[in-house]
Write a structure and sequence with these properties.
two-stranded parallel ribbon, TIM Barrel, 11 helices, 350 residues, binds iron/sulfur cluster, 13 strands, DNA polymerase, domain 1, alpha/beta
Length: 350
């Protein structure tokens, strides 16, 4: 029996080309059926070719002979007091990843992982302690969205996707781009490009490349320090691409109208949360179109650093707001379930 392709690793263009080729030898198979397959997979979210009702039996047979439809097993889920749900998802090789559903009054967000573990080694991050195990396939990225979707009530919807889970998305560039293509495909999920955000620790060559892609997802940079000394302590990547280089590339990043770069900034007591840091942040980002997401470090999960005093976090935010900077203070969704930023970590073997 030939090995079956996982159809969720394929973009619609890939599938169209494959079907076009097959149409030369198999009657009644046509390339446009790829559009219908996408509709069934990602808009109806069916899990078998037999349920793709308007696709002829010859085509369904062909699909069944060559493809399979994957799904992820939910091995655990934890619900937070704020309604967030952290899912532990089991992959086919028994590795595990995590995805988080975050409800909001006006919209819902899913936070997805791009790798098992992460090789960037950020000092404040639980995922970083795992090291990099492997990249996720396109299908494994897509299947996280579908796994979360399965549990939504009928009236609920997903509007935003953030690549802020486990991993450095730009280290898995090809699969990330394919996933973005499927997520934004009008025959696929049809998510708005404006509603997808990819967060990087600052891989400059990939930021440049990302700016040239035809899919214009939002860019977020995990900043976390306003001097090289502090940022290098927290994020080793700063030794390769320091702040001057990073901000230089951000200045060149092509932004569509009404878009801006998001900078994530973790507030750590006595390290990154002083008013002098706030002043430095404004100076550093001056001239960019940006906003800052302030994330109070959650010190319950790691011994090295401390959470900021709530009053200090508010002072920091006020300083930015008073200087015209959009700076939501993110009371991390799901803190009580360790589903907040930098807290996703699972055992590398299930
Ligand atoms: S903060 Fe992001 S890039 Fe850094 S180790 Fe954690 S997952 Fe990786």
């Amino acid at each position: 029996m030939p090995k079956l392709y996982n159809i969720k690793n394929w973009t619609r263009q890939n599938l169209r080309e494959w079907m076009d080729e097959k149409s030369k030898s198999v009657s009644k198979v046509q390339a446009f059926r790829a559009d219908q397959v996408f509709y069934w997979l990602y808009q109806q979210r069916v899990e078998s070719f037999a349920k793709m009702l308007n696709i002829g039996s010859e085509t369904r047979k062909l699909l069944t002979e060559h493809f399979r439809i994957s799904s992820l097993v939910k091995s655990d889920s934890l619900k937070s007091q704020d309604g967030s749900v952290k899912y532990r998802l089991q992959l086919e090789d028994n590795q595990s990843i995590e995805a988080v559903f975050m409800p909001h009054t006006s919209h819902n967000t899913v936070c997805v992982s791009s790798q098992v573990g992460c090789g960037m080694g950020c000092d404040f991050c639980m995922t970083g302690t795992m090291g990099l195990v492997r990249n996720l396939t396109t299908a494994e990225i897509i299947d996280q969205v579908l796994a979360v979707w399965q549990d939504l009530q009928e009236e609920q919807n997903l509007r935003n996707i953030v690549f802020m889970g486990m991993g450095e998305p730009f280290h898995n560039y090809k699969n990330l781009l394919q996933a973005l293509e499927i997520l934004t495909d009008e025959h696929g999920f049809n998510f708005s490009q404006r509603r997808i955000t990819v967060s990087t620790s600052g891989l400059l060559p990939k930021i440049r490349r990302f700016g040239k892609e035809k899919i214009k997802a939002n860019l977020a940079i995990s900043l976390n320090g306003v001097t090289d000394e502090v940022r290098s302590k927290l994020m080793p990547i700063n030794n390769a691409y320091n702040l001057e280089k990073l901000i230089g590339v951000c200045r060149e990043f092509p932004l569509e109208s009404r878009r801006r770069i998001t900078f994530e900034y973790i507030l750590i007591r006595d390290l990154t949360d002083s008013i002098a840091d706030a002043r430095g942040l404004i100076r550093l980002l001056h001239g960019l179109k940006f906003k800052v997401n302030l994330i109070p470090f959650n010190s319950t999960t790691a011994g090295k650093y401390l959470a900021p005093y709530p009053e200090q976090a508010r002072k920091f935010q006020k300083y930015l707001l008073d200087h015209g900077v959009v700076a939501p203070l993110r009371i991390s969704k799901g803190q009580d379930i360790q589903g907040a930023c930098g807290q996703l970590v699972v055992s590398t073997t299930a």
